[in-house]
Design goal:
Length: about 375
């Protein structure tokens, strides 16, 4: 196994959230190789593949970097792909191909051509190495993902399968759901901790409160789902996965005390949110209620609003936005020493909230540019010993 002791691993994430993911990877104890737009690469062994998939809250997936090279022509793409050590990863009966090709500012840009040329090159390489003329491809799946940026080709083998934001708890969704890993990232961009109050007045299917509760109870986001690489016993011994899940189970604390609340004006949504929280095993840690934003209140100080309010993506919905944001601004003002963090693509959000944000961070939610508006309340006084 010695030649696998050090992989270079690529973890893609939402644009604008690389710093949060970098911190998560460092906290797991792995060395960062590079931080780029929308991805963080790091070094690790077989165990790192398990840990990355099971423990990272903000990543999209974990790829093993097979290699990178420069290519401006299809011939260079073919030769570069053929030089990569495919036989070290893919067994004789493995199912393989380029699942996704993305190209930015590069001469080669047609995804379907990139996919078919790279597949041919992989077959050529493996024919020589395995001395086979034909591959049955009836074994495990080894999907390849390719990024071409300014003619530099980066080739990754996907160990995850279905994206990591799919934790397995969200069976039902709202009209404009926020991805679980994006929700986790937003919470991690705030100073919120499990002993502080958190209210989401537009909770939809419950994603922000559920992700907060999973953090509070120290539940690893990937512990209740499956990953493609679990079947790759020639690369990652099964024991590594068992050890990783055992460790995840030991860290969980469902007895943690929390004050996490989710409100939505639509009763159907609060029902769905409760159901999702139950599937995530944290329904006892969250209080969901059908309630309009104008009824938002809390008697205690130093709480947090973390929310994904309506953006009004369709024009006819835009007219409904000012009163919603005005109501939120009013209710926020009435709270005592609270902080508020919200993600929105609505340009007039600050105007309608009646207050300029202390900080404004640009984040891409898919292709949509959004703003993470941050209103920082005062810090609570330090708890003195013996109280």
């Amino acid at each position: 196994m010695s030649n696998y002791s050090r992989f270079e691993l690529i973890a893609p994430c939402h644009f604008g959230l690389e710093a949060v993911l970098k911190r998560e990877i460092t906290d797991l104890g792995y060395e960062i190789a590079e931080v780029m737009d929308g991805k963080v690469t790091f070094y690790g062994d077989e165990q790192a593949i398990c840990y990355g998939n099971v423990f990272l809250r903000t990543a999209e997936r974990i790829l093993i970097k097979v290699g990178s090279f420069h290519a401006e022509t299809f011939e260079e793409l073919f030769e570069g792909t053929k030089k990569l050590p495919w036989e070290e990863y893919i067994p004789k009966n493995g199912k393989f191909g380029v699942a996704k090709a993305a190209s930015v500012k590069s001469k080669l840009f047609s995804p379907s051509d990139i996919q078919s040329i790279m597949k041919k090159a992989m077959v050529e390489r493996m024919k020589e190495k395995y001395r086979l003329e034909w591959f049955p491809e009836d074994g495990d799946n080894f999907p390849i993902r390719v990024f071409i940026l300014k003619d530099e080709v980066t080739v990754g083998l996907d160990t995850t399968g279905e994206s990591l934001h799919k934790r397995g708890y969200r069976k039902l969704t709202a009209k404009a759901p926020i991805a679980e890993n994006l929700a986790a990232s937003l919470i991690m961009l705030t100073p919120w901790k499990k002993d502080r109050i958190l209210v989401d007045p537009f909770c939809g299917s419950g994603t922000i409160p559920i992700e907060a509760a999973l953090m509070a109870a120290n539940v690893a986001p990937g512990m209740n789902r499956e990953f493609l690489a679990e079947n790759w016993a020639h690369l990652i011994p099964k024991k590594n996965w068992y050890d990783c899940i055992d460790e995840a189970n030991e860290l969980v604390d469902y007895k943690v005390e929390t004050d996490i609340q989710g409100y939505d004006i639509d009763e159907k949504m609060t029902k769905i949110a409760r159901e999702n929280a139950k599937l995530a095993g944290v329904d006892h840690l969250i209080h969901f209620q059908t309630r309009a934003v104008k009824d938002l209140s809390h008697p205690k100080k130093y709480g947090f609003i973390i929310t994904n309010p309506p953006y009004g993506e369709r024009l006819e919905e835009k007219v409904d936005l000012p009163p919603i944001y005005e109501a939120l601004g009013e209710r926020y003002k009435a709270l005592d020493a609270w902080s508020m963090y919200l993600i929105t693509s609505y340009e007039n959000a600050e105007r309608d909230l009646g207050k300029k944000a202390d900080k404004n961070r640009k984040i891409y939610n898919g292709m949509m540019k959004t703003y993470f508006l941050q209103y920082m309340g005062p810090k609570p006084p330090k708890k003195t010993e013996g109280k």
